[in-house]
Design goal:
The complex is a heterotetramer of chains A (about 325), B (about 325), C (about 350) and D (about 325).
Chain A: H1 2-30, H2 47-57, H3 63-75, H4 89-124, H5 129-143, H6 146-156, H7 178-216, H8 219-226, H9 231-253, H10 255-269, H11 274-284, H12 287-315
Helix pairs in contact in A: 1-3, 1-12, 4-5, 4-7, 4-11, 4-12, 5-7, 6-7, 6-10, 7-9, 7-10, 8-9, 9-12, 10-11, 11-12
Chain C: E1 15-28, H1 31-36, E2 42-55, E3 59-64, H2 70-77, E4 85-90, E5 93-94, H3 100-109, E6 110-113, H4 127-137, H5 144-157, H6 164-167, H7 176-188, E7 194-198, H8 206-221, E8 225-230, H9 233-239, E9 242-247, E10 250-256, H10 257-262, H11 267-274, E11 335-336
Parallel strand pairs in C: 3-8, 3-9, 6-7, 7-8
Antiparallel strand pairs in C: 1-2, 1-4, 4-5, 9-10, 10-11
Chain D: E1 6-16, E2 22-33, E3 38-42, H1 49-56, E4 64-72, E5 75-76, H2 82-85, E6 93-96, H3 110-120, H4 126-139, H5 156-167, E7 174-178, H6 186-203, E8 206-211, H7 214-220, E9 223-228, E10 231-237, H8 238-243, H9 248-256, E11 304-305, E12 311-312, H10 319-324
Parallel strand pairs in D: 3-8, 3-9, 6-7, 7-8
Antiparallel strand pairs in D: 1-2, 1-4, 4-5, 9-10, 10-12, 11-12
Chain lengths: ~325, ~325, ~350, ~325
């Protein structure tokens, strides 16, 4: 019963957040000095073109009407058209999003696995050289600006791995096998994924270490020791499980960073994902695309947070109280 | 609190008053004592102070002007230009020294904005609880969920890219963490008996907040602000990289962007890319070290570990006193 | 404690605090789903009709287990918790609904002493500042010199002599007993008339408890009324004039300390007394152990609230909720809420 | 006399202090416990009683160093530190911790946590283990079905019962109970104490009870040690300790404890215990003692047998010294 309550509350919260995000999206883009069209930069952006755009966007109507229209079209899956390409924003975003997801998944998987492993080892071997070394590396990685790390990796791996794009443009001419295409895509993914993975690794390792250290100071750890459990069993069976709670929350919260990371990294590696679309939209002041990308990024973070809440429920029996 | 007393002083043993040295937890000495007792904090603090000094005395320290063309584009490091030259033939070392000014100003000012907002929200929500708490925390949660960099990008792209705007944008986005942590701490301080005692005494809320609660959460607020400085500098480099920095100013973020845009990579001019990143990393590292050291010192839990690879030692019996 | 100094009768001394039928409840959150399904609104009946009187120069001990409502009762008196029903009178004035200035004025006269001396002092305040605070809050004590004098007097009254030794110290430089004395000194600074002491010694080492309790006893002799909340019957037996035993938000027995301890009338009091361990190993008592734990104050049993655990309950107990009354053969001022007493 | 089930010989424990130096928390504790005996450790906070029993199981943090012997049926289990003590944990010596609220892992079911040591020490597994857990819970007064509950679903008293059931999982010879009733109500305290006495009798357990509460020891234990400043200052039958104490601290401690029916005035002991991070000279209790005399400030009294058949560490028991002063 209590569980249902928790579930309902989190769902409500997620829904309200989505609504807040949508509204915020509307407000921010209408709160521009001048209007959204004024700052547009492109080759064919003549005055007549801009006026036509204004009419198309309904900028001559009242804000309230605009808001209602905005909500209606959003409900129909319509995010408007790109100023630059004149294509529907949705179409502009779907492919990049599908490109980004595997790349981010690879980087996150790397950082979670290695971050947790080294965090556990560091907490367990607390105060030893291993802990010290681990801590220094994690701190260092955590302190590196993402885009800079990407550039450095570019320099170091310049000859070995593809430096930009998502696929070898010449591969298509060679009638590649399924496997060749896969390897090619993976190779293009490695550097951006590694950049995200390394920075997140530092963060996760630090979080896991301190959370586990906190769990290891709990009294039930002393009980477990008294029961005769070996150290690894205490860490694994008792402390780790309990320390996962804060880790899960913090990882969920760091997803916001992941989005930011995607923008910077894709800009560096010209990886045609949603981040690059955002980057280009910023440079070109293509507001409909920027607005759409922002909404999609926000929704994915809200969704990931919602999943984390549900996971939390699974992990902590007390949460329903 | 751990209830199993396994170490000295764990059970709050009465101490002989005549023996305890003065000071200790007296007047706000937590930050200072952390700086003195933890090498990690001392290193972080020293680096921060040195960077600030560099920023303040930039014109005296920089060998050349920040816009002065002193040689060919992308000239490699030499004895005259220890960090080489950028695409415009400007001395990288001078750029790094001047760039520290904007980066630090953005970092500290944005962190101050975040501290003001986050601290106030945290204290109000934590102290008054109830509806105030619920409302403020809801707002905080929304802010927390909305991805920060895209939001910054959008705001910066729309509102323009002056230094003040950037400071405000970063500050307004990064107050949530502070608010949550401060709220949690205030909630626990509010339940402390001495606060309840002051309430029972009839002391006003503002008196309790300023005399009892604020001094107690101040070290945590400092720690958090130091950590926010790091985040803010980070955010500045991200904004600058996306071309949303103040175009008239030189910052470390702008230097990285400039190297990227001017294709320093294709000509293998690592010296144009590496130094600004390292400068950012060093300052962020310093802030993180200082901030986490203070946080750790404030968290008594991390100091007790029931489990350690090292175990208790055995030693021979002490010699009996001759009697 | 010797017999002589105690006022054994309740006559003559004017009543300081009169509590009548006090009720305090806290709502239990039922959640979104619960509200949706129309689940009934529940409340913890923490205090459920409590009446007692504290007179000048009298120490009343409110004894009970956790969840009996003794702490909520104390907090209601100081209006830290808002009572739902009943009246509280201080020196004859109804203080149940006062607020603002009147409430501040009341808090001058009624002071609370907390359980945990390690927590009840602000670690950043020197002893002087801690004791000065009440004066500053209430704008009392005049100039700096006057305040200094009052602070010193309070320290001396609390047995911290000479005051110079303690004035500039921080709490962490003091032992537990000394801290509790500082807390008491701070409550004395405003010359209150009533002290409410919530478990004043339970966090202290045995060797210093007697000192704090004797200090309270001295204050009582000087005319203060003291309401002491405690779970320790032995302490109450030694230091209280009267004992009121609470069970599930209600006083079930009340009377002169000696009478309650030696001639308990309510079966709950009897059981409680029988399980108090004694110092003398030879005096093995036959503990009358009640089964289970005190029920949740959300579901108070109908009839006599003690009936499900009562060893002498009769069918009538399940329907009649007994009031406090003087049982047959009991001394004056001794009452129990039991139809079989 | 038969061989003691557990004997402690000259046990010392030091803790490294963060700010340098060390704290001599336990200073030469010796005692012998017979099978089935109920023994008490009494003393105020910081006297070293908890550290002593943690040392018996080798449960000290890495900042501790230990000297002395702990003989379990003649075998020195501390001889090789952690290595030699860990096989005996829970199978031979088990413990009920202070504040059972935190003794259970909040994210694991109670039954699982009770069965854990059974599996670990190869006593029972699977269905057998579950059956035994059920039996243990029933024995301590909890319905067997509650094994699948989480700790937060138990009341304080039930959690303490479950902690006792957990301690009995491997049928230990010695049960250490550290303040098992602190923070519990009197009635629940009585239930728990009765349960412990019953279990000790039924299983022939040696019960070691650590508490600051003298009356509890008086009612539960046949023998007890009074600790002060890291040492045992008096040890013997509880009856003798109360009726014929031979150390002023024991006498004053009883006098400071209010009794329900005894109306003698309750007295506090002035002063505070000495700090243990520096060398003590003379009797550690001398500054607070109401009967200190000449040698007390200089010479440390040893724990010696008195004419009443128990032992005390006080110069008053030495007629020669007394006469000389």
């Amino acid at each position: 019963m209590r569980g249902a309550d928790y579930f309902l509350k989190r769902t409500l919260f997620a829904l309200v957040t989505v609504f807040v995000a949508i509204t915020l999206n509307f407000i921010i883009f209408r709160a521009t000095p001048g209007d959204a069209v004024t700052g547009l930069r492109c080759q064919f952006c003549t005055v007549e073109f801009k006026d036509q755009l204004r009419a198309e966007l309904g900028l001559d109507k009242s804000k309230w009407e605009q808001y209602v229209i905005y909500l209606q079209s959003l409900a129909e899956g319509d995010m408007g058209r790109s100023f630059v390409t004149r294509e529907p924003v949705v179409d502009e975003l779907i492919d990049p999003l599908l490109n980004t997801l595997p790349m981010i998944a690879l980087g996150t998987a790397f950082s979670i696995v290695f971050g947790i492993l080294s965090g556990v080892v560091a907490a367990w071997r607390r105060g030893t050289f291993l802990d010290w070394g681990n801590l220094s590396f994690s701190l260092l990685f955590y302190s590196l600006p993402t885009q800079w790390l990407g550039l450095m990796l570019l320099i170091v791996f310049a000859g070995t791995l593809p430096a930009s794009g998502i696929a070898d443009p010449f591969l298509a001419f060679t009638d590649p096998s399924w496997w060749d295409t896969f390897v090619d895509r993976l190779e293009h993914m490695i550097l951006p994924a590694a950049t995200i993975g390394i920075v997140l690794y530092g963060e996760y390792a630090l979080i896991v270490r301190s959370s586990l250290m906190e769990a290891l100071s709990e009294d039930y750890v002393l009980t477990a020791r008294a029961k005769g459990l070996r150290n690894w069993a205490i860490v694994w069976r008792h402390a780790f499980r309990a320390s996962l709670l804060p880790v899960a929350t913090l990882i969920a919260l760091s997803l916001g960073y992941l989005v930011a990371g995607a923008i910077l990294v894709e800009a560096v590696f010209s990886y045609p994902g949603i981040g690059l679309v955002t980057y280009d939209a910023v440079t070109e002041r293509d507001y409909p695309v920027l607005q759409g990308a922002f909404l999609i990024l926000t929704l994915s973070v809200v969704f990931a947070n919602y999943l984390a809440d549900l996971l939390y429920f699974k992990l902590d029996p007390r949460v329903a109280e | 609190m751990s209830t199993i007393a396994s170490g000295p002083g764990a059970a709050g043993a009465p101490t002989d008053p005549s023996d305890v040295p003065g000071g200790g937890r007296g007047r706000g000495g937590v930050v200072w004592s952390v700086l003195r007792s933890r090498p990690q904090a001392a290193i972080g603090g020293t680096v921060l102070v040195l960077t600030i000094l560099v920023a303040v005395f930039a014109p005296l320290l920089a060998p050349y002007g920040p816009r002065e063309k002193v040689g060919p584009p992308f000239a490699p490091p030499s004895s005259a230009y220890p960090l080489g030259l950028d695409d415009g033939g400007v001395d990288m070392l001078s750029l790094i020294i001047y760039g520290s000014r904007v980066s630090l100003v953005v970092g500290f000012a944005a962190a101050a904005v975040a501290m003001l907002i986050g601290g106030s929200v945290g204290i109000l929500a934590g102290y008054f609880g109830g509806k105030t708490d619920i409302t403020l925390m809801r707002v905080t949660d929304y802010f927390l969920v909305i991805p920060d960099v895209p939001l910054m990008i959008v705001i910066a792209a729309i509102w323009g890219r002056s230094l003040t705007n950037i400071i405000i944008i970063i500050g307004v986005i990064y107050w949530t963490g502070t608010a949550r942590i401060i709220r949690a701490q205030v909630k626990s301080v509010r339940e402390r008996v001495y606060v309840r005692r002051a309430q029972a005494l009839g002391a006003s809320d503002s008196r309790i907040i300023f005399r009892h609660v604020l001094p107690q959460v101040a070290p945590l607020l400092v720690a958090n602000t130091v950590l926010t400085v790091a985040v803010a500098i980070f955010a500045e480099t991200a904004l600058a990289f996306l071309g949303l920095g103040d175009p008239s100013l030189i910052s470390w973020g702008r230097l990285i962007e400039n190297a990227f845009v001017s294709n320093a990579i294709t000509v293998d001019a690592w010296w144009a890319i590496a130094p600004p990143g390292i400068a950012v990393a060093v300052v962020i590292l310093a802030c993180t070290m200082l901030g986490t050291a203070i946080e750790d010192a404030l968290n008594p839990r991390l100091r007790v570990g029931h489990l350690s690879v090292r175990r208790f030692r055995l030693r021979p019996l002490p010699a009996k006193d001759p009697q | 404690m010797s017999e002589e100094g105690r006022p054994r009768s309740d006559d003559g001394r004017p009543p300081l605090l009169e509590v009548e039928n006090l009720v305090a409840r806290f709502a239990v959150p039922r959640g979104v789903v619960g509200a949706f399904r129309g689940r009934p609104k529940l409340a913890v009946r923490a205090v459920d009709g409590v009446s007692f009187i504290v007179r000048e120069g009298e120490l009343l001990a409110l004894v009970g287990e956790s969840g009996s409502g003794k702490t909520t009762t104390a907090q209601s008196i100081l209006r830290l918790v808002k009572p739902e029903a009943g009246t509280i009178r201080f020196r004859g004035d109804d203080i149940t609904g006062i607020s603002g200035r009147e409430l501040r004025a009341l808090r001058r006269h009624v002071q609370l002493i907390f359980q945990d001396p390690y927590e009840s002092l602000d670690p950043r305040f020197r002893v002087r500042a801690t004791i000065e605070e009440p004066l500053l809050v209430h704008g009392e004590g005049g100039g700096k010199a006057d305040r200094d004098r009052l602070v010193r007097e309070a320290l001396e009254r609390a047995g911290l002599t000479p005051p110079e030794l303690f004035l500039e110290r921080y709490p962490h430089e003091l032992s537990g007993g000394q801290r509790q004395r500082v807390a008491i000194a701070a409550s004395l600074a405003l010359s209150p008339e009533l002290l409410v002491a919530d478990e004043p010694v339970s966090m202290l080492d045995v060797s210093v408890r007697a000192g704090i309790l004797s200090l309270l006893d001295e204050l009582r002799r000087s005319g203060l009324g003291i309401l002491m909340i405690t779970h320790d019957l032995s302490t109450a037996a030694h230091f209280a004039d009267r004992i009121a035993v609470m069970y599930l938000g209600r006083i079930v027995e009340e009377g002169p300390a000696r009478e309650v301890v030696h001639n308990p009338r309510h079966p709950y009091t009897k059981a409680l007394l029988s399980v108090v361990p004694q110092r003398d190993p030879r005096r093995q008592t036959q503990p009358e152990i009640l089964r289970g734990e005190t029920p949740n104050p959300v579901n108070i049993p109908p009839g006599c609230r003690f009936n499900p655990r009562c060893p002498i309950a009769i069918p009538e107990c399940r329907t009649t909720d007994p009031d406090l009354r003087v049982p047959a053969g009991a001394k004056r001022g001794h009452q129990a809420a039991c139809i079989r007493a | 006399m038969t061989e003691p089930v557990l004997a402690v010989e000259d046990l010392h424990v030091w803790f490294d202090l963060e700010q340098g130096g060390e704290l001599h928390a336990v200073q030469g504790v010796s005692l012998a416990l017979q099978t089935g005996e109920r023994f008490g450790f009494v003393g105020e906070s910081g006297c070293g009683k908890t550290t002593t029993i943690l040392a018996l199981m080798g449960l000290l943090p890495s900042s501790a160093s230990v000297a002395g012997r702990v003989l379990l049926e003649g075998e020195d289990i501390l001889a090789d530190g952690e290595e030699s003590v860990s096989p005996h944990r829970w199978t031979d010596i088990a413990m009920v911790f202070q504040g059972a609220m935190n003794a259970f892992n909040p994210v694991k079911r109670v039954g699982e946590q009770i069965a854990e040591p059974m599996k670990l020490h190869e006593i029972a597994e699977g269905r057998t283990a579950r059956r035994q857990v059920g039996e243990l819970l029933e024995r301590v007064g909890i319905p067997a079905a509650r094994a699948s509950s989480y700790p937060h679903e138990f009341s304080g008293g039930m959690r303490q019962r479950a902690a006792i059931a957990m301690a009995l999982a491997c049928k230990p010879k010695v049960l250490l109970a550290d303040e098992p009733t602190t923070a519990l109500d009197v009635m629940v305290q009585a239930q728990i104490l009765q349960l412990l006495i019953g279990l000790a009798d039924d299983f022939g357990l040696t019960l070691v009870l650590v508490t600051h509460d003298l009356p509890i020891v008086a009612q539960v234990c046949s023998r007890a040690a009074v600790m002060y400043a890291g040492e045992i200052v008096e040890i013997g039958a509880t009856d003798t300790l109360y009726h014929d104490p031979r150390h002023p601290y024991t006498r004053l401690l009883f006098a400071a404890t209010p009794d329900l029916y005894d109306e003698e005035p309750v007295l506090s002991i002035p002063g505070t215990p000495p700090r243990l991070d520096r060398e003590l000279v003379g009797c550690p209790f001398a500054p607070r003692c109401d009967r200190a005399f000449a040698p007390c400030d200089r010479v440390k009294p040893r724990l010696v047998a008195t004419d009443t058949g128990h032992s005390a560490a006080c110069h008053l028991n030495d007629p020669a010294l007394k006469a000389a002063s």
